[in-house]
Amino acid sequence: MKKSVHVVGAIIENEQKEILCALRGPDMTLPNLWEFPGGKIEVGETKEEALKREIQEELGCTIEVFDHVEDTTYEYEKVIVRLETFMAKIVSGTPVISEHAEIRWVSREELPSLNWAPADIPAIEELANTNLEK
After folding, report:
1. Which tens digits make up the pLDDT trace of 62-71?
2. Most-buried pick from 18, 30, 63, 133 (CB within 10 A)?
3. What's the CA angle centered on 115, arms 120 and 95, to 5 degrees?
4. What are the domain boundaries of the chain?
5. Residue pLDDT, tens place only, 42-55
6. Does the reported pTM lie above 0.85?
């Protein structure tokens, strides 16, 4: 039976209405695919607490978490991932890569042009169809 993981992703938008995208490195699972930064929810954490901790660990930034965007379950070859995404903004710090191969600020219109991890795609589609604000 496949392992299930519950993860959260931050759709971090800046003042120019660009969204922070992170490229998974060649040594990571799902290599060279783009994703929203985030990670696993630890025991005892709320989704928002997990997201704040993960962004601090991955990017060295403090974020404020806003509206829930999407809740997607995707079955990969070896694992079933439930990804919940939230709008967020950076309240302190500047993103610095620690785990990813690259990070990039991208306009909403350009998001579909990146090669996304499948679990992230429904959130991209939701962003394209709505004017979710931070």
Report:
1. 999 999 999 9
2. 63
3. 70
4. 3-129
5. 999 999 999 999 99
6. yes
Q: Residue length, the chain? A: 134
How do residues 4-56 score in pLDDT, each as one tens digit?
A: 999 999 999 999 999 999 999 998 888 999 999 999 999 999 999 999 999 99
CB neighbours of 109 closer than 8 A, spacing ≥ 6?
none
Cβ-based neighbour number of residue 25 at 10 Å:
13
Closest CA to 69 of 129, 110, 126: 126
Would you say 47 and 86 are in contact if contact means Cβ atoms under 8 Å apart?
A: yes
Euclidean distance between CA atoms 84 and 109, whole angstroms:
21
The class (CATH top level) of 3-129 is alpha beta
